[in-house]
Design goal:
Length: about 170
């Protein structure tokens, strides 16, 4: 199964710190792990999951073995990175961050002052796109409930799919 995986800029798992065997002219080496969601296994994303895991680099990954489909991720016993999504570069990350910044301020404005303390300040870097996406979704939730949070995350996913030409 093909999916996506965000890694840090140096190719490490954001939460695990695992140093992934990155592709170099072909797929990276297979990695194997026991499976225990959020503790062990090869964790990856569907396109709808991407906004929850934004990090420095994005890779297409191949999963093998039984794949557990969880609400915000996939978990499998084997995986290997196939290639980097080069479109997820600094300008695109900043554009995504700026989009989320604007959305957060739109939600704060609709709340007529009630959510101003939650809105990101102008000094935040658009490179902090994961945080800005979270803030926009949180403000949507504060304004319209959990369904509004989910809708904002869907909108963010749609943006990523379109701008990164994902399938």
């Amino acid at each position: 199964m093909r999916a996506y995986k965000f890694l840090s800029d140096d190719g490490r798992g954001v939460f695990s710190g695992f140093d992934w065997p990155l592709p170099n002219g072909g797929p990276g080496a297979w990695v194997e792990s026991d499976v225990a969601a959020c503790r062990a296994g090869i964790h990856a994303c569907r396109t709808a999951d991407l906004p929850y895991w934004v990090a420095g680099r994005l890779y297409e990954i191949e999963l093998d073995g039984p794949v557990d489909e969880l609400p915000l991720k996939l978990v499998a016993p084997q995986g290997r990175p196939l290639g980097r999504i080069d479109a997820w570069d600094t300008p695109t990350r900043e554009a995504y961050g700026q989009t989320c910044f604007v959305r957060a301020h739109e939600f704060a404005a609709r709340a007529q002052g009630a959510l101003d303390d939650w809105a990101p300040t102008p000094d935040i870097s658009f490179r902090e796109s994961a945080r800005l996406g979270f803030i926009a979704a949180l403000l949507a939730e504060r304004l319209g409930g959990f369904d509004a949070h989910l809708e904002e995350r869907r909108r963010q996913s749609d943006w990523l799919v379109e701008h990164l030409a994902l399938r």
